[in-house]
Amino acid sequence: MTETNTTTTELIKAGIVGTGYAASQRADTLQKDWRSHLVAISSHTLTRAQAFAQTYETSFIDSWQQLIEHPDIDVVFICTINCDHGVIARAALETGKHVVTEYPLSLNPSEAESLIALAQAKGKLLHVEHIELLGGLHQALLQFLPKIGKPFYARYVTMVPKKPAPKRWTYHPELFGFPFKAALPHVHRFTNLFGQVASVSCQSQFWSNCEYYKACLCNGQMRFQNGLIEGFPLTISHFCN
């Protein structure tokens, strides 16, 4: 027998802050599941909000502050610039909403810890999306790592070439955050595999152009308590004008 939705009271009513790729993936998933309903979205840019709302046949709200106050919304999906994650999550939790946010939870570790405590005190869901741990690559590592013996060195490289470097928020230090914070899920792959980190060292260089950087090069190294050394180079953008 096919299960169908019979009453609107069963619906999880959601609001989305943001209109980018992550927001579109959330909207697609919400609309495909009969247990959920996308009530409204908000964005920094009105024209993007209007276009997004039209695509997904939902309403748009002028600001995220108004969205989290919406009485018909149960859960807020945060899919906007990194620097706003913490403040939106706190406001939503204090309003009594459940929260699902893209990584990072906050650019400030102390604020992230306080948000976890707030969610526990309020009895609300606070989920930070780390989809890499669910992917085929990581699952294969988990499966075959015990078969290769004890590793002593691991390396992870991320390169994102763009020419010319776009003036997007991901190239703005204050909006995006330090690259290794923004790349937290990649780091999380190794902590999930190898456990506690004993020490961390890092060097970075940025090629700036007013508020935005044209390129950055970050090299980090983590030493794990089990003796493993992990090199973690991260390159974003390009090295020419």
Question: Mean pLDDT, as a whole number?
Answer: 86
What string gives the helices and strands in order? EHEHEHEHEHEHEEHHHEEE
Alpha plus pi helix count = 9
- CATH superfamily (homologous) name of the largest domain: NAD(P)-binding Rossmann-like Domain
Number of domains: 2
Query: Do you know the CATH architecture of the largest domain?
Result: 3-Layer(aba) Sandwich
Explained architecture:
There is one protein chain. This protein is of the alpha/beta class and 241 residues long. The chain folds into two domains: 122 residues, 3-Layer(aba) Sandwich (Rossmann fold), CATH 3.40.50.720; 91 residues, 2-Layer Sandwich (Dihydrodipicolinate Reductase, domain 2). 33% of the residues lie in helices and 29% in strands. It is built from nine helices and eleven strands. Strands 3-2-1-4-5-6 form a six-stranded parallel sheet, sandwiched between helices. Strands 7, 8, 9, 10 and 11 form a five-stranded mixed sheet that branches. Helix 4 runs parallel beside helix 5. It is globular, with a radius of gyration of 20 Å. The N terminus and C terminus are likely disordered.
